[in-house]
Amino acid sequence: MMKKIRIGAAQGFYGDTIEPAIATAKYGNVDYISFDCLAELTMAILLKDKQKDDNLGYTRDITTSMKALLPYVKEKGIKLLTNAGGINPVAAQQEVIRVAKELGMDDLKVAVVTGDNLIDQIDDLIAQGVSFNHMETGASIDSVKEKLKFANAYLGSMPIVEALKQGADVVVTGRTTDTAQFLAPLIYEYGWSVEDWNQLASGVFMGHLLECSAQSTGGNFSGDWEQVERVEEIGYPIAEVDASGEFIITKVGERGGLVSVDTVKEQMLYEIHDPSAYITPDVIVDLTQVKLENVGEHHVKVSGVKGKPKPDQLKVVMGYEDGYMGQVLMGFSWPDALKKARKADEVIRKQIEQKGLLYKEIHTSYLGYDSLHGPLAKEPSEDLNEVYLRMAVRSKTKQDAAQLGRLFPPLFLNGPPAAGGFYGNIPTRQLLGMWSALIPREIVESQVKIRVEEVGTYV
Fold first, then answer.
1. How far apart are the first and last CA of the chain?
2. What tens digit of pLDDT does each residue of 88-143 get?
3. DSSP assignment of 441-454
């Protein structure tokens, strides 16, 4: 029988539920379970964690995930691949080892991939000729360089492949692409070369369809979403991939959800800016000839993915200090709820001006009217039952941001009538801006390291 590799999806973000992945481990007959835990926002969250405790900086739900899934590594030989390491992958590896010891495992090999973190090398790299100019605007790094807090290059699959070659049961990485954990098992199992562009592209696309947990199995589905069954116990997608790269998306029958051409197609279009050139470190993916077929209940076959040679540069995502945010919520009731909320906004803006508060940005939205659609919202034709005014400011200092909340309480007696539901004590928080740049890949790849540690002893 032709060999096929089954890969299950786990979390699609830091904080995602692990229960569907547990069901996949129990019933899915999978060889690998792959996580995608990181977004740019997540890196900022992890940075703040590390600033409080140098031992943190990884997604802390790795503890519960590993407690739930490590027994299946032992029982069924499933390998776990995760980028939960964030900005401190070594600490994440040690946490996995700690959990393994707690579970009584002493023969588990846990690998860690490092080398994506560039924050301490920025000046040296600039001196070597790396501009770090913004990859979209061309702006100079000089405007943010002194405020940088993290800088991580997106790694591809190859370090994970190397970890698997060294016998790893669990691989923890820092900033990899969302799809790297999904492609790596295929390269390892099928021995694809670094120039098998079509197979690599198909593997990346498979990863793209699995990376957002249930979005290929009916979660967040904007089509016939009411027909998705048992959403309360939705399943995560599983891909069954053959050596050619063609694959079928499915799920376990023990969980709910829906796998159809439409659910898969919707995830296919997610975050794809150019279908003819979806750029990753491993390959440039061409989706213009992709074919999706229903081949059974909850089974969609995917074929026709093409690949082009990988880019010469890697993307670097950087976070820099960008001031502080203060925000306040205050509700107003019928009649004329929206009109009252608008008047309150007007009052607060005038008081901000009168008091000389210097905010870089003031944002107003009205919950119940335009808080989701912004300027695209249509003026309501009926008098709304209630509206919440939300004001947020961005300031240079934490103290200035906190001033906003102090302006609101007097509105109860001195402003528009029928105010209620006041949330003025929302803590201010530091904002991090994002900066994206490119770097020659050989600079990063020359410093990537893989270390495999066996629970109880070094390998």
1. 35
2. 999 999 999 999 999 999 889 999 999 999 999 999 999 999 999 999 999 999 99
3. HHHHHTT-EEEEEE
Neighbour count for residue 317 (Cβ, 10 Å) = 19
**155 DSSP assignment:** B
- Determine the residue type at 341: A
Tell me the β-bridge partners of 429.
325
Distance CA 391, CA 359 (A): 12
Q: What number of residues does the chain have?
A: 459
Reference 313, options 129, 454, 164; nearest CA is 129
- Count CB-CB contacts under 10 A for residue 205: 30
DSSP character string of 209-223 = HHTTGGGGTTTT--S
Residues 298, 229 contacting (CB under 8 angstroms): no
In angstroms, the Cα distances linking 147 to 44, 322, 432, 451 are 13, 8, 9, 31
pTM: 0.93
Strand-pair partners of 238: 8, 250
**145-184 pLDDT, tens digit each:** 999 999 999 999 999 999 999 999 999 999 999 999 999 9
Question: What are the Cα distances from residue 327, in Å, to 340, 341, 416, 422, 451?
Answer: 19, 15, 20, 11, 44
Between CA 28 and CA 10 the distance in angstroms is: 12
Q: Which residues contact 377 (CB under 8 A, 6 or more apart)?
A: 369, 370
Burial (0-12, 13-18, 19+ Cβ within 10 Å), 441: middle
Q: Which of 101, 144, 107, 111 is nearest to 126 (CA)?
A: 144
Per DSSP, the three-state class of 51 is: helix
Is residue 123 exposed (0-12), middle (13-18) or buried (19+ Cβ within 10 Å)? exposed
Contact 37, 82 (CB under 8 A): yes
